[in-house]
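Milestone 3.1: sequence recovery, worked example.
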C-alpha cells in the first residue's frame, strides 16, 4: 500500500486524493471523495447500465477502520444493461412460482424451505405433529 497525492484519471487529468492510497496498484478513495465520473455497480444498475466488461478503475472505502469497500467503474465506459426477453421473463416467473409453491399446494408470498417444501404455516404444523416443536401455552 503506497500513499499518493494525485491520481491520473482515465481522461488524462489528475485528481487530488490526499491522503490517497494505492492498494495493489488500484487507487482507493475515501467515502464521498471519488472524482466525478466514477460509479459503483449499484449506481450503474440504477441508471440501467453495466460495467460492460471493463475492469474497475478503483475502489471506495468507508465504515469503521475502512473495512467496507466497493469497486468503482468509469461511467463513460459503461454499456446499457441487457433486457430480458419475454421467454426469459416467463421462465423466471415459472421458476419463482415453483419456489413459492408449498407441498400442500398453497402458494406462499415467500420461497418455501427446501427441506420439505412447506410454507411457514404448514411447516409449523408439521413440526408440531412430528414433535420437533412444542406448542407454546397462551
Amino acid at each position: 500500500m503506497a500513499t499518493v497525492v494525485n491520481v491520473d484519471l482515465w481522461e488524462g487529468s489528475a485528481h487530488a486524493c490526499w491522503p490517497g492510497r494505492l492498494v495493489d496498484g488500484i487507487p482507493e478513495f475515501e467515502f464521498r471523495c471519488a472524482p466525478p465520473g466514477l460509479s459503483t455497480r449499484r449506481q450503474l444498475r440504477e441508471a440501467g447500465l453495466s460495467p460492460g466488461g471493463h475492469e474497475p478503475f478503483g475502489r471506495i472505502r468507508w465504515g469503521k477502520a475502512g473495512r467496507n469497500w466497493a469497486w468503482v467503474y468509469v461511467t463513460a465506459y459503461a454499456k446499457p444493461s441487457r433486457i430480458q426477453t419475454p421467454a426469459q421473463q416467463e421462465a423466471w416467473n415459472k421458476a419463482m412460482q415453483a419456489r413459492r409453491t408449498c407441498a400442500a399446494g398453497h402458494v406462499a408470498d415467500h420461497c418455501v424451505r427446501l427441506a420439505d417444501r412447506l410454507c411457514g404455516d404448514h411447516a409449523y404444523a408439521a413440526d408440531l405433529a412430528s414433535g420437533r416443536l412444542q406448542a407454546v401455552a397462551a
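The chain has two domains: 2-80, 86-130. Helices lie at 41-46, 86-100, 120-130.
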